[in-house]
Amino acid sequence: MTEGFGRVDGQLAVGGIAVERLAARVGSTPFFAYDRGLLAARVSAVRAALPTEINLSYAVKANPMPAVIQHMRGLVDGFDVASGAELRNALDTSMPASRVSFAGPGKSLAELTQAVAAGVTVELESEHEVTRVRAVSETLGVAARVALRVNPDFSVRGSGMRLGGGPQQFGIDSERIPAVLETLGDLDFQGFHVFAGSQNLNAESICEAQRKTVELILGFGVAVRYLNLGGGFGIPYSARDKPLDLAPIGENLAALVDGPIRAGLPEARVVVELGRYLVGEAGVYLTRVVDRKVSRGKTFLVVDGGLHHQLAASGNFGQVIRRNYPIAVANRIGSPATETATVVGCLCTPLDLLGDDVELPAAEIGDLVAVFQAGAYGLTASPTAFLSHPAPLEVLV
């Protein structure tokens, strides 16, 4: 899980730069560092595995750093955004508005107006949102580009977070879709988006969801120009996780494109939307040891970061069972593990735990600790205002 990053003089290297040198450039710890080379390599691997007919869209919510979005513009075919701020950052690139989609429940009137005026595809999450977008279209005198996000009648086995099946705040229940289609009026209907689950490491489960999605959309019996099959590709976060095998997913998609999609939806631009899978393993969170203490036989390394920057690594971002993210003493990357230590942050809560009983080289005050798999759902998915510590910086190298 950490092999993609290089080493320089016994230190972890990001973008070929040793972490102590990188920390000196940044000027303070903690900070997030993202590796351009790893981002490009991951997109290239996905491209190689999936059929050429598949359009690859980046889910900006995974990492909305403007520099990352700008970099991804040259690698992917489209963006999916989930807020007005993400939309502005996406449109600040050269990505055509027609290749930007806007999903998520509870969009504000200002966000809907911004999206319709820009010409992006608004993915409608409820019947009320259909009414609101129609009103915005009438006010602006513009036929809004829209797609219906569907809450399917199936869920995805093995997903870390289920976004479809049963009652959901996401999407319109599939049984209501035929009635909703009749209410679209003059809206510029593009097609459908079905995203039933995320963080899935089971290739067959993803393939099954894709097959069921295509079958569901074909059942609506309408022509579409846009078919977003979602994504849900997971990355390993702990030693027990096995990396996702892309080969069977690519084969399954090829069969779907060449078969039922080409036959029943010949005009559809087929999209796979990925966020975490593209950026998650390309990022690392670096934080410095400010104290070392032993309490009743247990060694604690206290760092200047914590869950207020990297909530997911602490286990407080929806995990049922907390497991350690990969973690290392970044300036002693080649040294053997000689002790068991628990890495904790600087917050006044026992929840501020970055690594519990981790086998590490003996770390001293001043050493850098790296938390890997930090490229997605890190800084912007964390409670940065908790205890009023300064926000960390982010760098793309």
Automatic annotation (TrEMBL):
Classification lineage: Bacteria, Bacillati, Actinomycetota, Actinomycetes, Pseudonocardiales
Cofactor requirements of the protein: pyridoxal 5'-phosphate
Domain Orn/DAP/Arg decarboxylase 2 N-terminal: 39-279
Protein name: Diaminopimelate decarboxylase
Location of N6-(pyridoxal phosphate)lysine modifications: 61
Gene3D superfamilies noted in UniProt: Alanine racemase (3.20.20.10), Lyase, Ornithine Decarboxylase, Chain A, domain 1 (2.40.37.10)
GO molecular function: diaminopimelate decarboxylase activity
Listed InterPro entries: Ala_racemase/Decarboxylase_C, DCO2ase_PEP1, De-COase2_CS, De-COase2_N, Orn/DAP/Arg_de-COase, PLP-binding_barrel
CDD domains: PLPDE_III_Btrk_like
Record SUPFAM superfamilies: Alanine racemase C-terminal domain-like, PLP-binding barrel
Active site: 348 (proton donor)
Organism superkingdom: Bacteria
GO biological process: lysine biosynthetic process via diaminopimelate
Keywords linked to the UniProt accession: Pyridoxal phosphate
One matching Pfam family: Orn_Arg_deC_N
